[in-house]
Write a structure and sequence with these properties.
The protein is an alpha/beta fold. The chain is built from 15 helices and 15 strands. It folds into two domains: 3-212, NAD(P)-binding Rossmann-like Domain (Rossmann fold, 3-Layer(aba) Sandwich); 247-438, 3-Layer(aba) Sandwich (Rossmann fold), CATH 3.40.50. The strands form three sheets. An eight-stranded mixed β-sheet has the order 3-2-1-4-7-8-9-10, sandwiched between helices. Strands 12-11-13-14-15 form a five-stranded parallel β-sheet. Strands 5-6 form a two-stranded antiparallel ribbon. Bound molecules: nicotinamide-adenine-dinucleotide. Nicotinamide-adenine-dinucleotide binds at residues 39-45, 61-64, 67, 96-99, 111, 114-115, 132-134, 167-169, 171, 273-274.
Length: 440
């Protein structure tokens, strides 16, 4: 027998041991005699904590003390902590930390690396670490796994299991929550993949799909969001073209949608933590392996250009009424990145407001979902004006309370030119004629 043969044999032995250990771990989890730690209790981690703790013992950990206090205010018995040693007894670690981009639009892996470092200190033989954060294909095994390995001194896929289970939750949409959304999972070994599958099956009623490798699962997640970004960018480019051709994009889409294989998407501002960020992870990885991406990059560029396009359109509309954008009074309804939530991350309405302010406009913002301090910190001070004095109104977010305002409300706010930019088409068709109406 060669030395390589001996090594193969001992790895096979450990793998068999590991499969048995993982089965044993699952039994203990179900019996609540061992626990899971969730790292990062934000939009993804907190619902996971709440859902999983109905079935297994869970300790939630977040680096942000104020977040822990806030969770405990609404749930006094919540097992949540901002002290790392409190998660040392866990056997399963689930990482739900942010994966943002830097100012240069490159992946910012700081939180992922720091949380991996923290876990590595407590990692024991037989433990499982599952990442839920959205990353580029290869990231978990190239960036996180070495940190776990070095920090713990344990062999990955032999002495501990590494898994990946990207989240698809949609904040603010009740029908699309954790337990009823299908999920893709994977891990570095076959027994690991089965374990991760069985673990999520404890609290997910929908399909849990096992991808053959972590890389495939990472790629699947990033592709889901990149596809959506691109589909919307095509609509946005069409909206720009049709605006110049004086054609209503919505009417075009309604007509085209009568074909059996037409995919209906709508133009709009693409913000938030996922769709407007994740494609940059794929762009980065594509460049790292020597391919300069064209389609994906163009989609991002168009979607990021849209706020400026709208600001310029409003400027030219006002000019036709002999109103200069400098000093114009503009009221914007909705500042969040989508309707009926308070999430401001990467909101393109903020970019639109800043573009208008850069042109000298006086912009007033109304958003009942966001407190005034946050609005001020994002777009600077503004003065609320009286009814009837706004040169233009922009309906930017389709919050229920904005839709409920109705055409008369917008009409009465506006000066005699009645310029209404209805980005989300909240006004009934019958009321459009009362305004100088523009929509995407
Ligand atoms: N929000 C969504 O709808 C959504 C959907 C699918 C996937 N994702 C992905 O899930 C991941 C998490 O996103 P999110 O929206 O929950 O982010 P978030 O900002 O809402 O929450 C992340 C939490 O992690 C905490 N944190 C940061 N560093 C930490 C560390 N080192 N240790 C412990 N806690 C730490 C932060 O304090 C914060 O409370 C991201 O990769 C995101 O792309 C998000």
């Amino acid at each position: 027998m060669t030395i390589e043969g001996d090594i193969d044999k001992s790895i096979a032995f450990f793998c068999t041991m590991m499969a048995a250990d993982l089965q044993d771990l699952m039994i203990k989890l179900k019996a609540r005699t061992t626990s899971v730690a969730i790292i990062g209790l934000g939009y993804v981690g907190l619902p996971l904590y709440r859902c999983a703790s109905q079935y297994v013992e869970v300790m939630g950990y977040d680096i942000d003390e104020s977040r822990i206090k806030m969770i405990k205010m609404t749930d006094h018995d919540a097992k949540v902590t901002s002290s790392v040693p409190d998660i040392s007894k866990a056997f399963v670690y689930i990482v739900c930390v942010p994966t943002d981009i830097t100012k240069d639009k490159l992946p910012d892996l700081t939180h992922l690396k720091e949380s991996s470092q923290a876990i590595s200190k407590w990692l024991n033989k037989g433990d499982v670490v599952i990442y839920e954060s959205t990353v580029y294909p290869g990231c978990t095994e190239e960036e996180c796994l070495p940190i776990l390995e070095t920090g713990s001194g344990l062999k990955p896929n032999v002495e501990f299991t590494i898994g990946y289970a990207p989240e698809r939750i949609v904040p603010g949409v009740a029908d699309l929550q954790l337990s009823n959304i299908s999920r893709v999972v994977s891990a570095g070994t076959e027994s690991g993949r089965q374990f991760v599958h069985d673990f999520y099956k404890l609290f997910i009623n929908a399909d849990v799909h096992i991808a053959p490798s972590i890389k495939v699962a990472e790629a699947a997640k990033i592709v889901e969001n990149t596809q959506r970004d691109l589909n919307i960018s095509l609509m946005n480019e069409l909206a720009i073209i049709f605006d110049k051709l004086d054609i209503d994009t919505q009417e075009v889409l309604e007509a085209a949608d009568t074909k059996w294989n037409f995919h209906k998407y709508h133009p709009g501002l693409v913000g938030g933590h996922c769709i407007s960020v994740d494609p940059f992870y794929l762009l980065y990885k594509s460049r790292a392996v020597g391919h300069e991406p064209k389609v994906i990059a163009a989609g991002r560029e168009i979607n990021d250009y849209l706020p400026l396009f709208i600001a310029e359109k409003l400027e030219s509309t006002l000019l036709k009424n002999n109103v200069a954008i400098k000093g114009a009074r503009i009221i914007v309804f909705g500042l969040t990145f989508k309707e009926n939530i308070d999430d401001m991350r990467n909101s393109k309405v903020v970019d639109l407001v800043k573009a208008l302010q850069a042109k000298g406009a006086n912009v007033t913002i109304k958003d009942s979902h966001v407190n005034e301090e946050i609005i001020h910190s994002l777009v600077g001070p503004y003065v609320a004006s009286e009814d009837g004095v706004y040169d233009a109104a922009i309906v930017a977010v389709k919050h229920d309370d904005v839709v409920a305002l109705g055409a008369d409300y917008f009409y009465n706010l506006l000066t005699e030119d009645k310029v209404l930019f209805d980005l989300k088409r909240v006004i009934d068709s019958s009321d459009k004629e009362r305004f100088q109406y523009w929509a995407l």
